[in-house]
Amino acid sequence: MVKVGIVGASGYTGGELLRILAGHREVEIACVTSRAHADKPVHRVHPNLRDVLDLTFEDIPYERVAERCDFVFCATPHGASMEIVPKLLEHGTRVVDLSGDFRFADVAVYERYYGRKHVAPGIRATYGLPEIHREEIKRAKLVANPGCYPTAIILGLVPLLKAGVIDSTRIVADAKSGISGAGNKPKETTHFPNAAESVLAYKMTTHQHLPEIEQELQRFSSEARVSFVPHIVPVIRGLTATLHCFLTRSMSPEEVRQLYQEYYREEPFVRVLDIGEVPRLSAVRGSNFIDIGGFAVDEERGRVIVIAAIDNLVKGASGQAVQNMNIMLGFSEEEGLGSIAIHP
Amino acid sequence: MVKVGIVGASGYTGGELLRILAGHREVEIACVTSRAHADKPVHRVHPNLRDVLDLTFEDIPYERVAERCDFVFCATPHGASMEIVPKLLEHGTRVVDLSGDFRFADVAVYERYYGRKHVAPGIRATYGLPEIHREEIKRAKLVANPGCYPTAIILGLVPLLKAGVIDSTRIVADAKSGISGAGNKPKETTHFPNAAESVLAYKMTTHQHLPEIEQELQRFSSEARVSFVPHIVPVIRGLTATLHCFLTRSMSPEEVRQLYQEYYREEPFVRVLDIGEVPRLSAVRGSNFIDIGGFAVDEERGRVIVIAAIDNLVKGASGQAVQNMNIMLGFSEEEGLGSIAIHP
Amino acid sequence: MVKVGIVGASGYTGGELLRILAGHREVEIACVTSRAHADKPVHRVHPNLRDVLDLTFEDIPYERVAERCDFVFCATPHGASMEIVPKLLEHGTRVVDLSGDFRFADVAVYERYYGRKHVAPGIRATYGLPEIHREEIKRAKLVANPGCYPTAIILGLVPLLKAGVIDSTRIVADAKSGISGAGNKPKETTHFPNAAESVLAYKMTTHQHLPEIEQELQRFSSEARVSFVPHIVPVIRGLTATLHCFLTRSMSPEEVRQLYQEYYREEPFVRVLDIGEVPRLSAVRGSNFIDIGGFAVDEERGRVIVIAAIDNLVKGASGQAVQNMNIMLGFSEEEGLGSIAIHP
Amino acid sequence: MVKVGIVGASGYTGGELLRILAGHREVEIACVTSRAHADKPVHRVHPNLRDVLDLTFEDIPYERVAERCDFVFCATPHGASMEIVPKLLEHGTRVVDLSGDFRFADVAVYERYYGRKHVAPGIRATYGLPEIHREEIKRAKLVANPGCYPTAIILGLVPLLKAGVIDSTRIVADAKSGISGAGNKPKETTHFPNAAESVLAYKMTTHQHLPEIEQELQRFSSEARVSFVPHIVPVIRGLTATLHCFLTRSMSPEEVRQLYQEYYREEPFVRVLDIGEVPRLSAVRGSNFIDIGGFAVDEERGRVIVIAAIDNLVKGASGQAVQNMNIMLGFSEEEGLGSIAIHP
After folding, report:
1. CB of B12 within 8 Å of any CB in chain C?
2. Range of the domain at A52
3. B54, B89, B124: which is the final residue of a domain?
4. Cβ(A271)–Cβ(A290) under 8 Å?
């Protein structure tokens, strides 16, 4: 059994890591840290884990975490991870970091979009989207787990971009996220009377996930540019991206779908829907699948619509993190990730 | 007092007409029809009207409606209106029709998108968007009240199109509607366990509001083309459109906002928000305002984002219908439309 | 025009007072105070009021408020009101206080349930439930506006208690409140991912509204005792109380309903539903009505069920406050309170 | 591997059975029937099962089901089960029936509350609440799976009743259910604009689960009588019951909790919360646990409040059905039921 630790285990992604790892047959959870909840049993914060996991949050130095664990998930906020990860790596511990701190090849991009100086600019990570970087992930010491929006948007666009059939300079990604994506700290936008019966666009041109999306898409089409607008919708979990693209040549819906089918044929967590089917959040809620569908073509306007849906806390965060760990440690990629979505 | 009738008064738009007209000082509600609910008091169907309006649904021939009313709202479904409206007009009754039946200059477009033959192709109506057609509405015998999506999208785009500063062939309108927009008949997509915790794109390239949007926008830019995708979100009332446009020249957010300010300076029901403010549904819920904001410019990608929000049942339907009646009958345009939105 | 002020106008009840008073023909809003939002226009906090009210929050001493206003609403939190109200009364200003500070005849009860010492124990107020205390309200200098739960529960029980047909020692009031009742400050229980898809009982035996309910009910039956349990449900606005009572004699549903009909015959804001009808929140959302229905009798178990529903921010707070002001100032009791509920 | 069948597999409880059985290591799903969806793959109806279960709905005679299966779940509606179950039993197939058809020892009670004649009055079933009837379940040919409300209410009351510390004639069970409890057929009360932002009491004295609750509770206290009122709240899944009881002797919260701890000490699916903790739906959503907490004592009024929460589709239906099958077939009682709840 591999000993794994979770740093920052009291947040939503920490809770999801615990839920998933509780059923993982190759690892043992050796250490869960939380400054705010030190010495509390995990079920005080994650009530679903009562009588499921008998663990207690600890507030211990990262060196101790590294000593006790073979593998660590950093579920810490942006800015905290870049302080912690180097200390873990020094001990030879392999790490999946769920923050944005190590997602960028170019530190300057990070500093511009996250508005802070990077304290560990020399550390290189592998971008943890297995469908694109599986081989590098296998060998990586540090994997930067993708953001929730990028996961849905990148996977929803790659087959079209790779095939070179859309105008890559005019891609519109209009995304809608459940509110758990904002974390577990109450704020004005997450206050129920504000968030219910509401749809709210935010950071319309400045969201920190935009450069991450373009960085990855530009591997497939160098001039890829995305008009990305995120929205908060009154949903707890789930994220859907509506991808509006302009075709550079005439294609039928079947041909579009075929591109996805082929590209994702071997992927265990990508489901390509039938023509006319639209992904539903209940089909992915609690599971590590990404569903991709839509494939609607409007010949008159030369456009194609693709829709991608994930659970923002699973394929958009903790599920993907475990998928990355599985790849890094040579386990079956699906180990621990068998939860079926909760529908309805 | 002008005597008004409502044909099809048991639906959501019928209920909203009643709520609004109950406070209108120039009209008397002379007749409310419903086949399914004949002889019931209106509050059996619209429980908010108990002790407010003492009216009973009737199931009577349209000729009788025309005799008893000076003015009629047809809140009947698509397909029904085209049978009823001609009979009302014959009697000299002026009509606002809330269905899609008379919104198109070209009957062939109607027949294509609504999938049925038009039985009254010779009857011409004025498209009832007061901010664009106020002068014609004054004289109209028949006003075709706009759809909810077109109201938000057209008003959200006209100032940019008119100024000629965007690529009018590549407009993306990603819209999110509350579920009351689907009417009061239960169906699978409106079943709470399906609709809650969900975001659902539908009719991604074929929605019947698409040609209506383009018909009106092409008055301002002849080659206007819109990539319109509607979504259902778990909200009762309210509709928001995120308008992704590509600028043809560099503009600041202030310049963009200025276009809207100037265009809508005299409009009683259009509120132009400040830079950085994003429309919220609670600010329009139950009121006839449209809020337009966003005005975010992304210079690097040459794009601008504008967001428009309405209550789909008020400015998107019954409120606008009363606004049209007020214009047609020479009343103050705001009469009866003073309800302040319910926030939170 | 009477000049009215609102102290603490940036909260939800402050916003509702503004929404209601904007349409009140006998008063002018002379002063709105907020410490946190001083110098901002009210629509920055209450976005529904944009272009409706041209007012700015001020942070001024209460003496100045008293000088500028003939009448003041204190929409301040528990504990703050008892500091402010005496200063306002000293200037001869009449006041409706929306907090719990002056609702108790016995200060010791206040101190026990609110966990703080009362600093103005000598000041007497009239309990502002017009359906019970209308005559005293007319003459009152200070009206203590009832809590939301007490409004629904007291009005839902009085006819049964007064008729002496139920066991007054074994009344169960199981109440469900929308989340706006918790105010506009984000907290853990109001965080959308916690509050949505949830039902949460709280303060099951210790809620501060319990003694208020019993104080008023004991006017009708001296040994009245209520098993009151409040719950938070995923609703923005609206409060419903299910009142489980045990009959001391056999009664038909019609007889039960008759008690309510008679008791509330003259009341402008109480609607007694028909047998078998159950109050719906959409029938009161945004309006000052209380709907009372249910009237289900279970002869075998000797029980009767009555259900009462209000909008917690209107009849449960600001609407009732304006109703009280109307009575105090001799206006029509319904002035300003004509908003029809928003259904659906 | 035991071959199991599901009759009526297209409803919500059918879908949950499939979700649970997909991970069950002792059974093979041999047959899933649906008249309406015959020949469709199951994922067309249950989108969460795409790429998880490769099964197709069949419309075949019950004899064929019995031939192909060793064990059958009837997830058919009330009224249908009593036609089907006898045919299955004739073939020696053991059955768990999820409808209400076989829950009553006294057929007359069934006929009164379900409003239909029973066509198989001679067939006896064991009431499938394992915490009470485990021994009989082991030997049963037919288990009648409990209703969702009875599961929460009975388990929430038994320790108090058994201890004889409450007035068993004056128990109030005020229950709130998520809307999936109404099934997957759209109806007026489940239409999103009606169901959202709403709390609705229904069948206040006549719900068909009432006699089921009393039948079981009377095993512990012969004169047990429950004032049961069910409500629909805007939640997809989850059911909570607030149990208001009147103590016949003074007890501390600790003593109350102790009764539950002792009674459920060995139970794998009952979690007894700490004093002051209140069950949350997210702690049981998707899992087979029942959480029981509250344990609030109000000495002055001689009352105690207990709260029980379940996922209505799991412990309230399909999870409990699998738990019953596990007991009947001698498997580990927890087999297949390890899904951890989805929080948030």
Report:
1. yes
2. 2-124
3. B124
4. yes
